[in-house]
């Protein structure tokens, strides 16, 4: 009996927290690299909120009166991916027409604006929609790993399974892309292609994680920064350490969130935000690149 | 001897930079195997021309070929093995070491899965030695002075071991001793290893002293092109830079020096034209 509880209730929750943390952390590291901006991570730019919007829209469209889905729940990650990609595309369009493309903070501002828009849309949907949908949707607002199944684990695990060989193949471009575009291109990197590939992978990992655990924010900001500080950022080990820290972070946040106010469960995202927001402010005031 | 080798060609190239016109219908043939200096006032189009030649900036109109092929036909890796370039304000993370930066110069030579080879390590070691950076190779860029950072970048460009090297104001941020070091290194690489250089140089006297060939830019057009001493003449400098100067020969050095005197009057320019 204990075995059943561990196997069907506790273990999937633990594994899902770790894998989702890994996916969110890697997504953050890849986006920072691709955009050469330590603040540019999926939860700051609103990509996570885009994914959450996709999920809530999905629940809104495909739930019936008795709170059951009218289509298979396996479509939910697809909805998250569509939402995340839609939001990423909007930011890309805004960034590409920017009159001052070299100012790294402008991209962040576009992200903040889009993120606010997605959050507003989610809130609006919850208010104008029937109450029973609001309860489901609330889970994605700040993120929480409760009610995990092995099928949820498989979705996030699958995303990581695709990401690992791609990242091993991309280990040299990942370093090359830390240079400014002209230098990276002059040394032989196809800059735009690499950038787009990394961004797509980052958005995909974010969407898969968010579709299963909700928009747990700041993991993609905290984990790469900690790995960079304590390990260094120019070998493949950096991504491994980043993923491990991300996994540990979400697992810890989820565990603490469950126990601290027992029997009430806090959303795990509230705890990561508590850690992430001060770090964001610290990074905002720090210089990252040397210019000759 | 009958065939003149060409490093790069611009034909009828028009380009803009930040929406402002930068080059206007420029035709240019750059000879192979020489030290070529691009000179001209600020905003005259010399940097844009270099970026267009390296395929970093697309012209609005016209054809560009470099190292024997149209620039758009090159894939980035193959072109990087032919032409290296140091841009004007390169950027790298401050926690990167000098050695790791130089290693990034090897990108176009490294296989996707292959580990670092001895060839890569030797190229990096040579580049660090040539730029006098071996002793501080393990320092991070954040720990270096402006001049050391510039030399670290030059080490990266040398590690690329391309037969042609483009440098956009490589003596920026360098004191005169280090500036001479870099240009002496350029001369040595050119004379001993046959590397061809195209260098954007602000300092006319450095161009006069080190360049074999000068292209003089003026307001997006080419005001003069050819062997250094044929191009850098008092009249040409007066028209392009709007200064009066004397070019004098000193007894014990082979190249003359340019002595700027004063900004010339508008009427003087008109008189010269």
Automatic annotation (TrEMBL), chain B:
<keyword id="KW-0547">Nucleotide-binding</keyword>
<dbReference type="GO" id="GO:0005886">
    <property type="term" value="C:plasma membrane"/>
</dbReference>
<keyword id="KW-0813">Transport</keyword>
<dbReference type="GO" id="GO:0006826">
    <property type="term" value="P:iron ion transport"/>
</dbReference>
<keyword id="KW-1003">Cell membrane</keyword>
<dbReference type="InterPro" id="IPR051535">
    <property type="entry name" value="Siderophore_ABC-ATPase"/>
</dbReference>
<dbReference type="InterPro" id="IPR003593">
    <property type="entry name" value="AAA+_ATPase"/>
</dbReference>
<dbReference type="InterPro" id="IPR017871">
    <property type="entry name" value="ABC_transporter-like_CS"/>
</dbReference>
<keyword id="KW-0067">ATP-binding</keyword>
<dbReference type="GO" id="GO:0005524">
    <property type="term" value="F:ATP binding"/>
</dbReference>
<protein>
    <submittedName>
        <fullName>ABC transporter ATP-binding protein</fullName>
    </submittedName>
</protein>
<keyword id="KW-0408">Iron</keyword>
<keyword id="KW-0410">Iron transport</keyword>
<comment type="similarity">
    <text>Belongs to the ABC transporter superfamily.</text>
</comment>
<dbReference type="GO" id="GO:0016887">
    <property type="term" value="F:ATP hydrolysis activity"/>
</dbReference>
<dbReference type="InterPro" id="IPR027417">
    <property type="entry name" value="P-loop_NTPase"/>
</dbReference>
<keyword id="KW-0406">Ion transport</keyword>
<dbReference type="InterPro" id="IPR003439">
    <property type="entry name" value="ABC_transporter-like_ATP-bd"/>
</dbReference>
<dbReference type="Pfam" id="PF00005">
    <property type="entry name" value="ABC_tran"/>
</dbReference>
<feature type="domain" description="ABC transporter">
    <location>
        <begin position="8"/>
        <end position="244"/>
    </location>
</feature>
<keyword id="KW-0472">Membrane</keyword>
């Amino acid at each position: 009996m204990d075995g059943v509880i561990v196997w069907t209730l506790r273990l999937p929750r633990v594994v899902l927290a770790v894998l989702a943390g890994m996916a969110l952390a890697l997504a953050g590291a890849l986006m920072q690299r691709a955009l050469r901006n330590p603040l540019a991570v999926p939860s700051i730019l609103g990509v996570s909120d885009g994914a959450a919007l996709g999920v809530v829209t999905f629940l809104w469209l495909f739930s019936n009166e008795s709170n059951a889905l009218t289509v298979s729940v396996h479509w939910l990650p697809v909805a998250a991916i569509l939402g995340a990609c839609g939001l990423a595309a909007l930011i890309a369009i805004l960034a590409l027409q920017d009159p001052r493309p070299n100012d790294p903070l402008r991209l962040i501002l576009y992200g903040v604006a889009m993120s606010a828009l997605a959050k507003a849309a989610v809130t609006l949907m919850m208010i104008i929609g029937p109450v029973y949908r609001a309860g489901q949707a609330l889970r994605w607002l700040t993120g929480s790993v409760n009610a995990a199944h092995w099928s949820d684990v498989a979705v996030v695990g699958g995303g990581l399974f695709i990401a690992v060989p791609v990242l091993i193949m991309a280990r040299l471009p990942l370093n090359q892309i830390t240079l400014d575009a002209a230098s990276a291109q002059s040394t032989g990197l196809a800059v735009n292609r690499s950038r787009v590939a990394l961004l797509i992978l980052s958005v995909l990992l974010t969407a898969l994680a968010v579709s299963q655990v909700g928009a747990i924010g700041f993991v993609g900001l905290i984990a790469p920064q900690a790995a960079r500080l304590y390990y260094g950022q120019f070998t493949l080990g950096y991504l491994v350490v980043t993923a491990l820290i991300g996994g540990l972070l979400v697992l810890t946040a989820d565990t603490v969130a469950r126990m601290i106010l027992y029997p009430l469960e806090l959303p795990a995202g509230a705890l990561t935000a508590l850690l992430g927001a001060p770090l964001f402010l610290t990074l905002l005031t720090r210089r990252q690149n040397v210019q000759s | 001897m009958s065939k003149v080798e060409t490093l790069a060609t611009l034909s009828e190239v028009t380009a803009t930079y930040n929406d402002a016109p930068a080059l206007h219908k420029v035709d240019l043939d750059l000879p192979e195997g020489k030290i070529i200096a691009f000179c001209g006032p600020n905003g005259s189009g010399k940097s844009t021309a270099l970026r267009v030649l390296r395929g970093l900036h697309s012209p609005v109109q016209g054809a560009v070929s470099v190292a024997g092929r149209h620039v758009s036909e090159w894939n980035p890796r193959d072109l990087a093995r032919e032409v290296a370039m140091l841009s004007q304000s390169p950027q790298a993370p401050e926690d990167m070491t000098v050695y790791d930066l130089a290693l990034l110069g090897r990108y176009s030579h490294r296989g996707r899965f292959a580990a670092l080879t001895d060839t890569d390590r030797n190229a990096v070691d040579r580049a660090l030695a040539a730029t006098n950076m071996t002793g501080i190779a393990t320092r991070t860029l954040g720990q270096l002075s402006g001049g050391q950072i510039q030399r670290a970048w030059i080490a990266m460009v040398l590690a690329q071991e391309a037969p042609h090297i483009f440098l956009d104001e490589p003596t920026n941020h360098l004191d005169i001793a280090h500036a001479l070091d870099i240009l002496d290194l350029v001369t040595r690489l050119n004379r001993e290893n046959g590397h061809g250089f195209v260098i954007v140089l602000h300092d006319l006297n450095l161009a006069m002293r080190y360049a074999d060939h000068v292209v003089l830019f003026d307001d997006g057009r080419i005001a003069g092109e050819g062997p250094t001493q044929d191009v850098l003449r008092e009249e040409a400098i007066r028209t392009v830079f709007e200064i009066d100067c004397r070019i004098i020969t000193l007894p014990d050095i082979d190249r003359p020096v340019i002595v700027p005197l004063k900004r010339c009057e508008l009427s003087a320019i008109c008189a010269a034209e």
